[in-house]
Write the structure tokens for this entry.
Amino acid sequence: MVDESYKYRPSEEEWERAGKICRFLLPFYDITNLIFATSYPTSNLYFLQVWKIQCLLMGNVNDEDVLIKKMAKLMIVKFEKY
């Protein structure tokens, strides 16, 4: 079904980029839920997840997509504060 009053829709390129951003951010969502859903996260659980975050950020710092690369670099700066 198509809404005839809908005037604008994302292009295929925009949908692709949105999907890539979602794939980039999903692990952070999953890790955050894992850590904060646990009443008493143990240090081995916590540090493993922090290491995964670091690996995800470092793996995306040279991404071909400029937006993902920029987000990863900004997130690394904040990550290194902690």
About this structure: Residues 12-37 form the longest helix (26 residues). The helical segments are 12-37, 43-60, 66-81. Residues 42-82 form one domain. The mean pLDDT is 89.
